[in-house]
Amino acid sequence: GGENEIGKLVDYRIIGIDPGSGLMKATSQAIQDYGLNNWTLVEGSGTAMTAALDRAYKNQEPIIVTGWTPHWMFIKYDLKYLDDPKQSFGGSEEIHTIVRQGLKTDAPSAYRFLDRFHWQPSDMEEVMNSISDGVTPEDAAAAWVKKHSDLVAEWTDGIPKANGQTLKLAYVAWDSEIASTNVVREVLATKLGYKPEMLQVEIGPMWVGIAGGDADAMVAAWLPTTSKDYYDKYKDRVVDLGSNLEGTKLGLVVPSYMNVDSIEQLR
Ligand code: PBE
């Protein structure tokens, strides 16, 4: 295609995250849908993406990143989603809790809690913000659990304690899932008598782990769109406990100081 003013400013680069994520797939779809032929989607990680955003933002330089909500970056920086009139990024989604087959029998208390686990985007953001401010994920989760004892009691009331049984929680190192998985681990450990471990893996192995029974649970299935490929492939070998959060969003994100409002303007 021809020259594009915004494209020239950012070297026709969109800063992405880990290649297996649904967000990267949706961004490739957007590049196709909007005819952004001369653009490059840069692979990396959630951490590399936020580091690049932080550097650009501090220097008030132009940058386009792949982003999602809930995320602390919208609280720390003044950002905007680019309009997506072709809906390449899909609509608002739910995050589902997925466990391995047999967990209901093998760890009934954990299963009952995981089935009840449900919170609001503002809750997740509270944990994410405190981690981005430098608190360890463990301490941020523990503080959140202490502060929200009423909600935690709703999740755990009447559930008998286990006797130190181990549990494996699989997760990908996305900031949203670092927050949720740490809260789930904290509740299982301090309220329900389990010895939960967190296994940090890539998105594919996370699903394979639950489907094959090597991991017990995860709280990171963005549905119906973002995790669709993995869900379709493994849904018959896992147990879907339904939504733990509603109201997510994905898209291309820029600092508010940039003079662009829609993905269409990148063409
Ligand atoms: N995310 C966060 C993930 C799901 C959770 C939006 C980066 C993705 O698969 O894209």
From TrEMBL:
It comes from the Bacteria. It is found in: Cell membrane; Membrane. Belongs to the binding-protein-dependent transport system permease family. In the N-terminal section; belongs to the binding-protein-dependent transport system permease family. This is ABC transporter permease subunit. The chain holds residues 309 to 575 of 575 of the full protein.
